[in-house]
Design brief:
Blueprint: H1 23-51
Amino acid sequence: MSDRTVVATRRFETDAPAQDNRVSAIVSAFSVATDQYLVQLVEWTRVRTQSSSP
């Protein structure tokens, strides 16, 4: 059995519409949305780890 415990959860959501109905535009929009998500994730993780430090 693992000794790991979930200490916090959060749902992240981003939206980046594609400029056109082409694969390249869709991939670009996905990349933008992923970048936005990662910024949110890193900031949330930073805040959570600071608040739980001794």
